[in-house]
Design a protein that fits this description.
The chain is α/β, with parallel strands linked by helices. The protein is built from 18 helices and 20 strands.
Length: about 500
C-alpha cells in the first residue's frame, strides 16, 4: 500500500532551500515515528521525499497496518493532508485506457457511494491525448451506471473522487485525511513551556509543538505527588502523540518554598502577580541552562486577574526572555474544545487550579513600585536553590519509569472469570473504539480517568479490577496511584494487538 503526503501550505511557499530542508526533516521524523508500526522486518516501511509530496510505501496490505499508519500521520506536525493511493500505469493516451481507472475507483468507493452525491476531480501533469474533463466525465458516468442511487453534485458533494494523472502514472486516492499542519520538529527554536496539566498550558504546549518548536516542559509542583503524576502524564501524552520524533525534557520544581515565602511576605492583593513573576524568573533560569529561546504560558487575556494587560505587562518585566502566549485571544470554551480535540481534556479535568487560591482579593492593575517593594522582602537566592533541587527527566522515560514503579501491580493480557475491566478512556474514545472480545463472565465498567480516583472507593472491595486504556500509560499511572492509596485489588489490562 502507498500513502501520499502533502506538506503544509506555509512550507510550500518558502524558498527552495528552506522547503527542501523542512521536507528532509519531515521525512526523518516520519521514518522515526513509523518504526512503531508493526510490519515485517523483511519489508520495512519506505519514506521518500519527492518535492511536491512525500510517499510512504508499505509492502503489507493489512487493514490494521493501514489504520496504524493513518493514526500516526494525523499527529505529525508539518503534514497538511494525506491519502491512500492506488496506482495504475496509463498504457495509452485515449479513452480506451480509462476502464482500469474506473474499476479501481469502484473497488475503492462503490460501497460508500451508494445513495450519495459525488464529484470527480482530476489533476493532470504531462501531455495526454485527453483532457481532465474527459476523464472526469467517463468516471462520473461509470459510477452513475454501476452504483445505485448516486448523483453528481459538483459544488457540495458528499464524496469527492480524486484522481491524479502524473505522466504515465495514475493515482486513485482514498479518503483525504487532514494532518496537523504547522512545521516539522524541530525546524523552529527551542522553548520551555510552563506546564500545569490544566486545559490552558497543555493546549499552549501543543500549539508550539505544532509550529515546529522543540518544547520542553517546566512544572511547578504546588499540589504534591498526585498533581505531579497527572502533569507527568500530560507531558508524556503530548510527547508520545505529537512530538515522539525527538526527545523532550520534563523539569519538575518543588515550588512550595516559594509559595510559602510569598504567603508570609507579600500583600494578599499582589500574591498572584508576584507568584507569576517568580515562576517566570525560575523558568528563565531553566531556559538558560537548556539553551531555550523563549518561555510559553497558557495565559489568555482577561481570563483571571493576573491576566489583564496591566498585570501581564508587570509580570513580563520580571524576565528578559521572550514570553509567548499562543492562547492570548482565545476564550475558555475555545481552549477546552481544542483540548478535547488533541486529547488532553480528560487529564486537565482532574487538575485543581492551585494557582487560583493564592489571592482572595487580587488586584487587576498591580503597581510596579508596590510589586518591587513586596519582592524586596523575598530571598533572592531561593529560586536558584529550587532549580538546583529540580528533577530533570527525559519525557521518553516517563513511560519506562511508570513500568518500573508499577511492577507490584499486575499487568496482564488476558482476563480471568470474575475480574472486572474498567475502561478509563474518555467517553468519545470508548465510543470510537469499544473494547471487544471479553471472555464470558467478565464485566466491564466505563469510568473516565478524571472520575476514577473518587469512583474507585465506591466499588466492591472484594472484586479484582483491571484498568484499560489505549496506550497503557494512563492505566499504569492510575493503577500506581490507587496502589499508593492502599488499594491492592487493582491491575492493568493490556490486550495483545490483533493482526
Amino acid at each position: 500500500m502507498k500513502f501520499i503526503i502533502r506538506l503544509h501550505a506555509e512550507i510550500t511557499i518558502k524558498s527552495k532551500g528552506v522547503r527542501k530542508r523542512y521536507g528532509k526533516v519531515l521525512v526523518n521524523n516520519l521514518k522515526n515515528i513509523l518504526k512503531r508500526v508493526e510490519v515485517d522486518d523483511s519489508a520495512p516501511i519506505k519514506v521518500r521525499w519527492l518535492w511536491d509530496r512525500i510517499e510512504v510505501d508499505v509492502a503489507s496490505q493489512e487493514p490494521l497496518i493501514a489504520e496504524q499508519i493513518s493514526d500516526e500521520l494525523q499527529r505529525i506536525p508539518g503534514i497538511a493532508w494525506f491519502s491512500r493511493s492506488h496506482e495504475l500505469t496509463l498504457n495509452s493516451t485515449s479513452e480506451a485506457d480509462f476502464k482500469p481507472i474506473l474499476e479501481q475507483v469502484l473497488s475503492c468507493w462503490a460501497e460508500r457511494l451508494r445513495h450519495r452525491s459525488f464529484a470527480v476531480r482530476v489533476k493532470r501533469k504531462g501531455t495526454h491525448g485527453f483532457r481532465s474533463m474527459d476523464l472526469e466525465r467517463y468516471i462520473g458516468g461509470g459510477v452513475l451506471q454501476e452504483v445505485a442511487g448516486t448523483r453528481v453534485a459538483l459544488k457540495q458533494p458528499d464524496i469527492e473522487l480524486r484522481i491524479e494523472v502524473d505522466n504515465e502514472t495514475v493515482r486513485v486516492f482514498g479518503d483525504k485525511q487532514h494532518g496537523l499542519g504547522g512545521f516539522p520538529l524541530p525546524t523552529q527554536e527551542t522553548v520551555v513551556s510552563l506546564l500545569s496539566g490544566g486545559f490552558d498550558s497543555s493546549v499552549a504546549s501543543f500549539q508550539l509543538i505544532r509550529r515546529g518548536a522543540r518544547t520542553h516542559f517546566c512544572f511547578f509542583n504546588l499540589g504534591g505527588d498526585r498533581h505531579e503524576t497527572g502533569v507527568r502524564q500530560t507531558a508524556y501524552y503530548l510527547w508520545q502523540t505529537y512530538a515522539s520524533s525527538h526527545p523532550l525534557k520534563f523539569i519538575s520544581i518543588d515550588f512550595a518554598p516559594v509559595v510559602e515565602e510569598i504567603l508570609s511576605q507579600v500583600d494578599n492583593g499582589l500574591m498572584g502577580v508576584v507568584l507569576k513573576r517568580q515562576m517566570l524568573r525560575t523558568a528563565q533560569i531553566v531556559a538558560q541552562r537548556i539553551n531555550a529561546s523563549a518561555l510559553v504560558t497558557g495565559e489568555a487575556l482577561g481570563q483571571v486577574s493576573s491576566q489583564t494587560l496591566s498585570n501581564l505587562s508587570v509580570i513580563d518585566e520580571a524576565v528578559d526572555t521572550l514570553v509567548l502566549r499562543p492562547l492570548i485571544t482565545m476564550d475558555k470554551q475555545e481552549i477546552i474544545n481544542l483540548a478535547e480535540r488533541i486529547g488532553t481534556a480528560d487529564i486537565a479535568r482532574s487538575m485543581p487550579e492551585y494557582c487560583g487560591v493564592i489571592s482572595i482579593k487580587p488586584t487587576v492593575k498591580a503597581q510596579r513600585d508596590a510589586v518591587l517593594d513586596a519582592e524586596a522582602k523575598l530571598d533572592p537566592e531561593l529560586l536558584e536553590r529550587v532549580v538546583r533541587a529540580a528533577n530533570v527527566e527525559d519525557v521518553r522515560h516517563i513511560g519506562e519509569a511508570t513500568d518500573a514503579q508499577v511492577h507490584p501491580v499486575s499487568t496482564v493480557d488476558a482476563v480471568e472469570q470474575g475480574e472486572v475491566i474498567i475502561d478509563i478512556r474518555s467517553l468519545d474514545e470508548q465510543e470510537a473504539k469499544p473494547l471487544k472480545h471479553l471472555p464470558e463472565g467478565v464485566s466491564q465498567h466505563n469510568i473516565p480517568f478524571f472520575k476514577l480516583a473518587t469512583a474507585f472507593a465506591d466499588l466492591d472491595p472484594e472484586k479484582h479490577y483491571l484498568l484499560y486504556c489505549e496506550k497503557g500509560v494512563m492505566s499504569k499511572l492510575q493503577a500506581l496511584y490507587l496502589q499508593e492509596q492502599g488499594y491492592n485489588n487493582v491491575g492493568v489490562y493490556q490486550p495483545r494487538r490483533e493482526r
